[in-house]
Amino acid sequence: MIWNSIISLEDAIVKIAEKVKMKLSYSKDFIPENKRITKQLKAVTVQEAFDVVLAGTGIELMITRGNRLILTKKSRVQQATGKITGVVLSEDGEPLSGANVIVVGTTFGAATDL
């Protein structure tokens, strides 16, 4: 990916997506208007190209299974590690396997053992 002039961050991400023929989803609300890109990228992966142009912006790239590029704001929540134990019971008091458990007020969750 080579461009011969200084371009906006938005122009750079659009050009990268066009070059690799992948659909791109993002919100203009979090793309800094004043960030300019002057780097020339040669023989890099899609991830490496986005890592370069998004450096220092607080934006990260996700690539879906369907090869769609999605730009999101980096989460400020740090992932907690640890173990939570317990038993999820049905209304009849029987253990439920494969139940989804979500920590209230977060997006953290898991499925119970099958």
What secondary-structure arrangement, pairings included, does this model have?
Blueprint: E1 7-8, H1 9-19, E2 23-25, E3 36-37, H2 46-54, E4 59-63, E5 68-73, E6 100-102, E7 109-111
Parallel strand pairs: 2-5
Antiparallel strand pairs: 1-3, 4-5, 6-7
Helix pairs in contact: 1-2
Q: What does this protein structure show overall?
A:
It is a single chain. The chain has two domains: 7-73, Phage tail protein beta-alpha-beta fold (3-Layer(bab) Sandwich), CATH 3.55.50.30; 78-114, no CATH class. Helices cover 18% and strands 21% of the residues. The chain has two helices and seven strands, in the order βαββαββββ. It has helices at residues 9-19, 46-54; strands at 7-8, 23-25, 36-37, 59-63, 68-73, 100-102, 109-111. A three-stranded mixed sheet has the order 2-5-4, covered by helices on one side. It has a two-stranded antiparallel ribbon with strand order 1-3. It has a two-stranded antiparallel ribbon with strand order 6-7. β6 and β7 (109-111) form a beta hairpin. α1 packs antiparallel against α2 (46-54). The chain starts with 6 loop residues before the first strand and ends with a strand.
